[in-house]
Amino acid sequence: MSDVREYLSEVEYPCERADLLRSATAQGAGDDVLGHLGKLPEQRYENANAVHRLLGQDVDPREMP
């Protein structure tokens, strides 16, 4: 899977899964990225690390709570 960070750079957190999908689509994400985002639980995401953790990607220590 592509690194989703580049497709979620415009997301304002906290956000919902639909916001993640909208942003990724607007940034030109492919079906692989959109498919993975679409499988995320329908919940509120407080920051990018919450999204990356659920996707099994490395988190940015600068965004740790």
From TrEMBL:
InterPro entries (UniProt xref): DUF2795
Name of protein: DUF2795 domain-containing protein
Naturally occurring in which organism (per UniProt): Amycolatopsis oliviviridis
